[in-house]
Amino acid sequence: MKYDLLPHPPYSPGLAPSDFHLFPKFKTFLGGQKFATNDEVIAAVEEYFAGLERNHFMKGITALERRWNKCVEVHGDYVEK
Questions:
Q1: Would 4 be classed as within a structural domain?
Q2: In this entry, which stretches build a coiled coil (predicted)?
């Protein structure tokens, strides 16, 4: 895929793809639901991931590049959406 490894601040949730791209929508999807069994949770998670666009994770990587560049521009300060 020809990606370069870039330096990363030790604690930078604004640059963790799971924090800004995956979990916010996932939490919204699960919000308000109650599960009686582990199997129900597993089914809900599988439903969520099955419903993602084919390029969902590539969009996250693209967004990471933009956010990383913004973080460099502000000298490592927290990067908002």
A1: no
A2: none
